[in-house]
Amino acid sequence: MKYLIFLCYFFVISCCSTKYITVPLTTPPDIYNPGIVYTEKDIINEYKRSLMKISEWQNWYNVQTNIN
């Protein structure tokens, strides 16, 4: 019984003592909107643009989460 009371007490204390720090995020990059593709050259250019946008999002995420 003492063990159960101790666990309940420990749970209540741990829940009350947790403090979260909220940090506002910077605005994320713009959403990638693919352009109209007519030729193979357009496909390659859109592919390059999409890779640049993915890289931009990855860099933004890494800065927000302090990774790398």
Please provide a written account of the structure:
The chain has 68 residues and is an all-alpha fold. It has two helices and no strands. The longest helix is centred in the C-terminal third of the chain and has 26 residues, at 40-65. The chain is rod-shaped. The termini are far apart. Keywords: Signal. Residues 1-19 form the signal peptide.
List the helices and strands and how they pair.
Blueprint: H1 2-17, H2 40-65
Distance between the termini: 48 Å
Uncertain residue segments = none
| Major β-sheet profile | none
Average pLDDT reading? 82
What is Rg? 24 Å
Global outline: rod-shaped
How many beta-strand segments? Answer: 0
- The ordered H/E elements are HH
Structural class: mainly alpha
Strand content: under 5%
Instruction: Classify the helix fraction into a percent range.
Output: 55-70%
Keywords: Signal
Signal peptide: 1-19
What labels describe this entry?
68 residues; mainly alpha
Gist of the model:
The protein contains two helices and no strands. With 68 residues, it is an all-alpha fold.
